[in-house]
Design brief:
By secondary structure, this protein is an alpha/beta fold. It contains 20 helices and 31 strands. A hairpin with a 5-residue loop joins strand 3 (42-45) and strand 4 (51-53). Helix 11 packs across helix 12 (396-402). The protein is elongated and about 120 Å long. The structure holds zinc ion. Zinc ion binds next to loops.
Length: 654
Amino acid sequence: MTDEMTVMDLYEKYCDRIKSTGSSQYTSLCPFPDHPDRNPSFSFNTLSTKYYCFGCSVSGNAITFAQFFGEDPTPFYSDDYKSNRTLINNGKTTVKNKTVTPKLDLTDKAEEYHENLGVNYDDEYHAQRVGHHKGVLVFPYFDKDGNVDGFKFHKPKERTEGNMKKRWYLEWMIEYYPRNEFLIIAEGEKDALTLLHKGYYAVSSSGGARTVPDILKVFKEFKGIIICYDNDKAGRDGAPPMAQAIYDALGIICQIAKWRDGLPDKYDISDDKDGKEFVFAMDQRYEFRPNPTNKTRKGYNLISITEALKLDIPKPGMIVEDILNECGNTLLAATDNVGKSMMANQIACCIATGTDFLGYRVPKPRKVALVQHEMENGEQLDRLHKQTVRFLEMHPDLMTKNLSMHIIEDDENLLVTDQFEVIENTLINDPDIDVMVFDNIGQSTTVEMSKPDAIRNELKRLKAICRKYNVAFLLVAHHVKVDYDKHMDMKKEHIQGGKPVTDWADNVVQLQTSSINPSLVLFKITKIRSVHDKDGITTKLINQAVRFNQDNDLLFTNRMAISNWEAHFKATDKYDREMEYLRELGRRDVFTTLEALNESALITPPISEATIKGRWLPKFCKYGWLEKVRHGHYKVSDEMKVMLNDPSLTGTQL
Ligand SMILES: [Zn+2]
């Protein structure tokens, strides 16, 4: 191997304004006398010893450089260099008695084609030995040794010759590209050369926008990668798979250039003579949104059952019984003004302090980060002041240690900020976080909650974050507009985003304010992926309600089972008179139909006897508001008495 220092000594002697732009990669003013270079356009690599000038297209290696400037080239005849030369042969080469197939060498043919190129082409075409054959342009592809091993014949009869399966055009130039610049992926060879001529650093896929060659590790060294394909469907469809492949291989998020609206179909870089449209397309570029990398496997890893039983794969641990598991994703959903954000805060406090939540076990305290988008900061802080009093009194140390929060500032532009990236950075900075409470999912991304595929992709990313950082998410979600009057229940289908969202979630908790008593919040767990109770008992799909202490500490207490569930979904305003009537009836223990009819005269405006007898009494019995003691005798149910007064007094406490 040639010593990089020796190579540097050589270049340093003749090149001015040398600047490092990457490992072994440098730029400088062009030292060749024919090229008066003002901006450093000369590039050399001390590892490969090769150079290329983006201004005058001169190229070579340390040997040719030394020879040109009258220096001794012998130090640069490396072992590698010599062995490479001997392998290239037009006939069969015998290496240690073993016959090897010689590498394809189309170099001479390329030179023939190149002689036909003519003069009307940029220097880059000559430097890249582009040729002409039967009226079409021929782009040679070079192998590692600088020999041509493939051709791409340009339109109209596009075809290839030689080793041309998924290649990068100009791959051999990358070693000269400064790493402090963007690497641009263009759609075709002409585009790549046009960009090179304009002072950009480009490559293109031999298959155009449709194919993705193996992603090169060296891409990672650049300032960034920008994909700029043609202004047509193939170009627009081709950019995302390329960007995704780069993300999968290197974890880099590419940018995609966007042409000006109204440009003709199929407009491309080579059409843009003065380069203005390209600059505009670059200015309009946007960040690609990758799907989480999915390592595709060719088959299942099969192990014997006896081996499998020896494996100790623990079930995900419980964070909050029935509600949240380690690495799990839980949705807490409700319509507006039910108190879901406040319930999320309370759950966060319970997890941070290891306090049971409404009777659901929280086995141990864990580190929680609370991320809030929903409200003005002052409002959230005001709520937290009230909500945390009890927790701070009982567990001041745990609260300080385990509960942190982030409030999205007003000036944080949610439209341009990828919140998942923010989440990921938060987790990188604070890897001990076990749970992220996120309020709310609708505002976490710029994706519209009405587009299932887009949502699915976003949720996949979130799942990948869960696994990668071993963190659980409690996401506050919205209900769509539901006609509760008709449905009289809470169902997963009511959650905004629909099936993709609820399929993705491990657990789902849904809330709705009771229409009978506004301080009662109906509480139903509609999905539990992993059951922890050894007998399999859960509260899934049990009709429950909790008391919301709206005027006090904004905490939820008194979880209880509800039997007259459907009645709690009737719109309150329609039931004012029914409630008033029931309250009157509730003053008695058992009453007869006649007494009920007499009572009806007392409410204003009075209700007809026919309505009471034919509609109200049967309906109240059906809702469980009244119990029929015996024929013609009723009483207001205990549960209803509680609802009419204060749900915290009694009720079936769980
Ligand atoms: Zn030059």
